[in-house]
Each structure stands twice: as C-alpha cells, then as structure tokens.
Write a structure and sequence with these properties.
single chain; mainly alpha; three-stranded antiparallel beta sheet; 5 strands
C-alpha cells in the first residue's frame, strides 16, 4: 500500500507513466489503468507520442503507455483512446526514426539504439496487435546490443558512428531487456509458437547470463561487471520480475525460484517508511 501511494505521488516522465500503468494492469486494477491511459493521452503530441512533458526528444519512451491505452480502449470503447492508440501506432510504425536495418532509435536527431527501448516499444506493439513487428524490433535490439561473449546487453549503440557510445553492461538496461521479453512471452498468444521460440532463443540465454551478476546479498552493481559502481536495486527488481513471470507462465525452470525470491527480499529491504524504494539508478 505504501509503495503504491509513493508511486502515485511521483512526477512521471513518459516511460515512468508506462511502467506504472503496467503494474496496475498486471494487478488487474482496471480503473487505475484507465486513469493512467487518460493522463497519457492528455499529454499526447501532434506526432502521436504520449505522456510527453517539456522538451522531449524521446522516440520509444512515449510508447510505453501504449499498453494501457490499448487496454483502456478495450474496456471503455471510448473513441478518445482509439484515436490516441492509432496515432501512437502511426508514430511507432511509420514516423519514428530508424537505423538503416530498420531498428527504431531512442532519440530524435540521432541514430542511437538504447537498451531502454527494449522495454518501451515492443510490448506496446504486441498489445496493439503487431506481435510480428514487436519480435522483429526485439531481435534488432538484441543483434545490435547483446555481447556474444558474455550474453549481456551493452547500453548504447550509435549506428552513424558505428560504435558503442556507452558500452557498459548497465544493470538497468539488462533489466529492461529481460523484463520486456518476459512480458512479450506473456502477452503474445501461445499459438504463435514461432514467435515464442524466437523470443525464448534470446531470453533464456540472457536470464542465464544475468544469474552470475547477482551479488550474494541479492542486489547488483549499477554496471553489472564493475564492483566499483554503486549498489543498485532496479536490476534485481526487473530480473526477478522476468524470472517470476517465466516460472508462472511455464517456460522457465523452477530452479530460478530461490534466486527470484532472494532478489525480491533484497529489494523489499530497500523500501523506506514512506514507501519509496531507495538505492535505485536515477
């Protein structure tokens, strides 16, 4: 209850609006999902991007509220949500800047691909009925960002420069990737077997690689392979989310349960008396 109150009190950017709405979507709190969607639509730009605050160059972050908007339309039949969904889809499918190989970029005015986008865009596409495009985008992010040696995701690739401008194995970015693929596997219908197989071919090796990045206390460092970076909690929350989702949905071995429970317990220890989760990457 305290964590939910803290969440609702926050000033939120577009990606935060989306992630918050996903939590209430998963909890089945339909009225809250509709409210989050309505707020995102009230801040929709002419180009279709939703929940935009101030000067925002973000390409994929404003797609994060799309799942809630799609659900709000399904629940209410309100044409306001239908129009907003179609405009956001038009942005994502037609106007959002892409690399030469078709991967949607993270910022307007650059050809940068960020691990963050793994979570912000594909699940919206799947929720809006474009599962094939969702998986193809995830495969593009995996191809550009996943390190073949370690199995971990680098943070930022610059397609114009042809190099990583931030090669770090950022815990947050790896958490976004793991959580998104788990969410996609949950959302895309089971009969889409080929799409599920393509996702599992990326998700299972990533979850295995991340296992070795969790510290004895259930937390991680902000840069996963650098002990001189600060202690961080968001990675453990997102990794645990992916593991719990995979085990609940039956595609992940229950051998991961003790690890998931350890990370959840470690994160719970970081909740202060007001319900704010402390020690997370800003």
């Amino acid at each position: 209850r305290k964590v939910k109150t803290a969440l609702l009190s926050l000033q939120r950017h577009s990606w935060e609006q989306g992630v918050s709405a996903h939590a209430f979507l998963d909890l089945g709190e339909k009225d809250m999902v509709i409210a989050f969607a309505r707020s995102a639509v009230m801040r929709q730009e002419e180009d279709g991007r939703t929940a935009v605050m101030g000067s925002d160059r973000a390409v994929t972050d404003p797609c994060a509220p799309g799942e809630a908007i799609a659900e709000a339309w399904r629940l209410t039949g309100d044409p306001v949500f239908e129009d907003a969904l179609n405009r956001l889809l038009d942005w994502a499918l037609c106007w959002a800047p892409r690399t030469s190989c078709g991967v949607v970029c993270h910022l307007i005015g650059t050809k940068q691909v960020w691990a963050d986008s793994c979570y912000m865009l594909p699940t919206f596409l799947a929720a809006a009925g474009h599962a094939q495009e969702a998986v193809e985008q995830m495969e593009g992010y995996h191809r550009l960002l996943c390190d073949p040696q370690t199995g971990l995701f680098h943070h930022i690739w610059d397609a114009e420069a042809g190099r990583f401008v931030r090669a770090d194995f950022w815990g947050g970015g790896n958490g976004w990737a793991a959580a998104s693929m788990a969410r996609l596997l949950h959302r895309i219908p089971a009969q889409e077997e080929k799409l599920h197989c393509r996702l599992l071919a990326m998700e299972l090796p990533l979850l295995k690689a991340l296992r070795g990045m969790v510290r004895e206390d259930g937390l991680s460092n902000d840069i996963l392979d650098r002990t001189d970076s600060f202690e961080e909690v968001n990675f453990s929350q997102m990794y645990a989310y992916a593991l719990f989702t995979g085990m609940a949905d039956g595609w992940l071995s229950p051998e991961y349960l003790p690890l998931a429970e350890k990370m959840r317990a470690a994160a719970n220890e970081k909740v202060d008396s007001y319900g704010f989760v402390r020690q997370v990457c800003g």
